Amino acid sequence: MSARSGYYLKIPFVWEPGCPVPSRAAHLRFRTADSDWLAGALSSVLATSPDPSVQLALSEYGPHKAAAKLLALSSPHFEQLPECWQLAETAAGQPIGFVLPSVFVREPRNSLREGTIFYLGVLPEHRGKGYGHELLAQATRVLRQVGVWRILCDTAACNRPMIAVFRAAGYIEREPWERPLF
């Protein structure tokens, strides 16, 4: 399947009851991310993202403004949980990446809300070491702890590493959909 002009393909993934519950991270520890550090880390991750909409934003705004615009998108659609937006680091305190789990702003189902992983990123210099698995596991655990019953995520169809991470974690893969570039 290919996308129409002006669009690109996203692959949705869902975690819901019956999917595996991830175990605690073995190699990383997590703490609340400082907003300045997070903005810089997001800029670094976006600068090397394969996502076509990110590439468009980078060409129009550069990495720092693209990161600021992405972070600003979260507020009208998601309940921001700043304490849940976490920095991942090694036991020695070396930053590896971040997770940005969020809760949708909409009516709960049987008092339980739906969540998403607004963004997660492994810093470019640490990619290829399996950290994406631990980041997704942490984001999933955090959302379960705040009471979501289902986690809805997606990634660009060209982002093979992230697709592999979702699959390995037991997220349910849905049919690709077209998203407009903007």
What's the structural blueprint in terms of helices and strands?
Elements: E1 7-15, E2 29-32, H1 35-46, H2 52-61, H3 63-77, E3 78-79, E4 86-89, E5 95-104, E6 113-122, H4 131-145, E7 148-156, H5 160-168, E8 172-173, E9 177-180
Parallel strand pairs: 6-7
Antiparallel strand pairs: 1-7, 1-8, 1-9, 2-4, 3-5, 4-5, 5-6
Helix pairs in contact: 1-3, 2-3
Q: Provide a count of the helices.
A: 5
Strand tally is 9
CATH class: Alpha Beta
* SSE sequence, one letter per element: EEHHHEEEEHEHEE
Describe this structure in words.
With 182 residues, the chain is of the alpha+beta class. The chain has a single domain (7-33, 78-180), classed as Gcn5-related N-acetyltransferase (GNAT) (Aminopeptidase, 3-Layer(aba) Sandwich). The chain has helices spanning 35-46, 52-61, 63-77, 131-145, 160-168, and strands at 7-15, 29-32, 78-79, 86-89, 95-104, 113-122, 148-156, 172-173, 177-180. Strands 1, 2, 3, 4, 5, 6, 7, 8 and 9 form a nine-stranded mixed beta sheet that branches. A hairpin with an 8-residue loop joins β5 and β6 (113-122). The longest helix is centred in the middle third of the chain and has 15 residues, at 63-77. The model has no long low-confidence stretch (mean pLDDT 93).
